[in-house]
Amino acid sequence: MRGEATVLHADLDAFYASVEQRDAPELRGRPVIVGGGVVLAASYEAKARGVRTAMGGRQARELCPDAVIVPPRMEAYTQASRAVFAIFRDTTPLVEGLSIDEAFLEVGGLRRLVGPPEQIAVRLRDRVRTEVGLPISVGVARTKFLAKVASAASKPDGLLLVDPSAEEQFLHPLPVERLWGVGAVTAEKLHRLGIRTVGELAELESATAERLLGRAAGAHVHAMARLRDPRPVVSTPRRGSIGSQRALGAAPRTADELEVMLTQIIDRLARRLRDGGRGCRSVVLRLRFGDFSKATRSRTLRSPTDRTAVLLAAARGLLQAAQPQIAQRGITLIGVSFGQLVRGAEVPAELPIDWAENARLDTVLDAVKDRFGSAALARAAQLGRDPGWDAPLLAEHE
C-alpha cells in the first residue's frame, strides 16, 4: 500500500521577473526580460511569446520586441529568497533547498497540529503571496520526483495534489522529458526507439532500459517511470555553501571570455564570504556542455580562506583542466560554489608577506564598492564587455 502524499515542492514563478514586477507596478501584465546579453529570466507574458531562460538577448528581442528589458538586481532577489525560505522553515523544519527559488518540504508529521498536506500547501502559498508579494506554485505528492513534476504542471501560480491512487494516470501520459535526468540527448535516443511517453518507458524491463541508456542513467529514469523514488527530504544546512551560476546561451565562448565570467563570479562570491565573516575550504566548478551533459570539478584548499586571489587561482585551474571538453562539446552554463564554510574566526592568520598585497587589496575594493556600489570598480579585462555578463544567476543555500 502506498503512503500518503506528504512531500511539497514549492517553486517561485519566473522568480527574477516576478520580483521586478512586484517592485515596479508599471511592469505588471507586461512582458519583462531580465538581463541583456543573455536572458536570465522572463515573465510569463514574455514566455508566451517564446522567450526562454538562457536565450540570447537578440533572439529574445526579435520574438518579443515590446518586452521591457531590465538589468538584474541580485540583492533584491537574494532578499526575496531569504524571506520565502523563512516561511518554508516556519512551516516545517524539514526543508531541502534546491536553489534560490525552490525547495522540498516534508509535512507528514504536521497533520494533527496544522492539518493535511494540501491545506498546508494552501496556507504556504497564501503567506508567500501576502508577506513577500510573489506567486509560487506547489506540487504535493508521495515522492520528491512526483512533487516536482506536479509543481511544474500547476504553473503559473498553482497548486496540484497527486493522489497516491492516481500516480500512474498523472505521470504515464507525460512526455519522457519530464523525467528527472532525461535531457535532450537521452530524449532523442528514446524518441528514435519510439518511446515518447513515461508510460512507454515504464513498460520496458529495467535491464532493457539500462542496455539502451547505460547502466546508471537507464536504472535511474526507469525507476522514476515506475514511480520508485525512495529519497527522503533532507534538511539543507543553512550555512553549508554559497554559489552562483551563469547561463551562457548557445553561442560559442572563447577561453578568455570564460575566464572573465569566472572572475566576475569569484569576485562576487568572495566578497559575500567576507561580508558574512566566513571562509571556505573547497571550490567547486560546475559546467553544462552544449550536448546538455554536465561536469563537476572541485578542489579542497589546504586551509580555509576568504581571499579572492587564492579562490580565483583554484577556480582557474579547474576551468583550464576542463578546456579540452569545452572546446569539443561547447558550453552553456558555468557555475562556482564555495563549500565547507567556516566562521571568520576559524580562518587561520596569514603571514605578513602574504597578507600585505592580497588582503589589503580585497579590503580596499570592498570598501569602495560598499560606498559607491558594486559597479564602481571593475577589472580591466571586463572593460567593453556585454553588461549582461555582470549578472550571474544565483543558486544559494545558507
Automatic annotation (TrEMBL):
Cofactor: Mg(2+)
The UmuC domain, residue ranges: 7-183
Site, as annotated: Substrate discrimination: Y16
EC number annotated for this UniProt entry: 2.7.7.7
Record's keyword annotation contains Oxidoreductase: no
Protein name: DNA polymerase IV
Job of this protein: Poorly processive, error-prone DNA polymerase involved in untargeted mutagenesis. Copies undamaged DNA at stalled replication forks, which arise in vivo from mismatched or misaligned primer ends. These misaligned primers can be extended by PolIV. Exhibits no 3'-5' exonuclease (proofreading) activity. May be involved in translesional synthesis, in conjunction with the beta clamp from PolIII.
Keywords (A to Z) from UniProt: Cytoplasm, DNA damage, DNA repair, DNA replication, DNA-binding, DNA-directed DNA polymerase, Magnesium, Metal-binding, Mutator protein, Nucleotidyltransferase, Transferase
Subcellular location: Cytoplasm
Main location per the UniProt record: cytoplasm
Residues at the active site: E102
Residues annotated for Mg(2+) binding in this entry: D11, D101
Record-level Gene Ontology MF annotations: DNA-directed DNA polymerase activity
Family the UniProt entry places it in: Belongs to the DNA polymerase type-Y family.
Catalytic activity: DNA(n) + a 2'-deoxyribonucleoside 5'-triphosphate = DNA(n+1) + diphosphate
Cofactor binding remark: Binds 2 magnesium ions per subunit.
Gene name of the encoded protein: dinB
Keyword Cytoplasm: yes
Subunit structure: Monomer.
